[in-house]
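Methods — Computational structure assignment.
A single polypeptide chain was analysed. Its primary sequence is given first, followed by the predicted tertiary structure written as C-alpha cells.
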Amino acid sequence: MDKTKIILEDGSLKEVDSLFYLYNSKYYFIYTLKELDENGYVVLYIVQVGKEVKQAPNGKVETGYMIGVDIKDPIESESVQSSITKIVDSKKNGTQNPEIRILPMNMLVNLKIGSKKTFRLLKSIVEEYFGLDFSSEESGTDKENNNTNQNSGAGVDAETGAIVDYRSKYYELEDNNKELEKEIKELKEKLESIRQIVE
C-alpha cells in the first residue's frame, strides 16, 4: 500500500495507506486509517472513483476534484468483493491477476470521500501482504465502532478473512476510463513506431 492524502467526509485532509486499481473498466480506491476493531481485524474502506461534477447553468462541469463513493448496484458490490479477494490472493501468491491493474497513486488527484463501504481483513494478512506496520499504533477498538461494527448483513470470505459490509447506503457516480484508454492508445502507437524503426 502507498501513502497518500485524501479529503475525508468531514472535510479534513488525512494521510492514509491505500491502493488504487482498475477492475472491470472502473476505478476503485482502498484505504485504511490503520484502525482495529474489537476482534483485532483491520478496518478498511473501499470507494469507486470518478470525477466530481457540479450542475451549472450551461450543464455539468468538472470541479477539479475526484470523488470516491460507495457502490450502488448489489451485483457490482459482489464483484468488488471478488476483486478484494483476488488482490489478496495475488499478494499471497506473488502473482498479478490479469483482471486487476494496480494504478500509480499520482493518477489520483484531489480525492474527496463522499461515501464508502467498510470491510475488514485479518491483521496478519495486512501486515504480511500489504506491508503495513502496526507496531506504533495503539491497540484496541477503532474510534468508529458505531459505523464499522456491523457483522449482521455482512459477507464473509473465510479464506481471506475479508468482511464486506453491505449495510451502508448505496451511492453511485458514473465513471469512465477514456483518459486511461487514450494513454494506452498513445503508448501502443509509440511502441509500434519503435518496432518500425528497429525493423
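Note: Strands lie at 2-7, 13-23, 26-36, 41-56, 59-69, 100-102, 111-113, 117-122, 154-157, 162-165.
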